[in-house]
Amino acid sequence: MKKFLCLFFLTLFALPAFSQEDPFAQARERMLEQDVIARGITDPRVIEALRRVPRHLFVPKELEKLAYEDTPLPIGHGQTISQPYIVALMTESLRAQPGERILEVGTGSGYQAAILSEMGCEVYTVEIIKALADEARERLFRLGYRNVSVLWGDGYLGWEEKAPFDGIIVTCAVDHLPPPLLQQLKEGGRMVIPVGPPWSIQSLLVVEKRKDGIVTEDLGAVRFVPLTREKRIE
Asked: Which runs of consecutive H residues, i.e. helices, occur in 125-232?
């Protein structure tokens, strides 16, 4: 009998570490393997952050089953949560390190901020739609992300009181590089930003601020909702 019990417990501990409390754990692993790692994301800190953040809690309840598909999803107010691969690509390209101060423009539901939080960054995120800002602030606090500050405001202007930033990540499209963001970026810092016409194809740029000027790298074509300047309450 004792031998049978030992084998039983060994079998339990040998099972994959997918908790019954998280029915999406297997879907999240599949997403990582097929849509993130297989497409060239190699930074282990980025991969682990995507593994730890429950993306299904950052989308509307009725879309939970689609949370780990590699596609953007609507989150209300005409906004979307980016597809997992793009989140991973932008995060990896930022090269953020633990303890660094990162500005995010376009909080949305808070998913990107949670990823950066998991990587040990001090995150300052700006959202122009008050309802989304309030929801994201409550969600991030409830999930235990204490190193994230959310501001309802015009992200084009950045967050001057908290500047300078080691890195800036912009999750909405602009047709030029916003001067306030470049000013608030530290020398040696990096900004990842989609640049191009609204409601069309943009280029995902990595912008590095150096002593002798700005250097950009084009990561390829993307499609983001446009950055808006008018603060909205609803």
From this structure: 130-142, 179-184
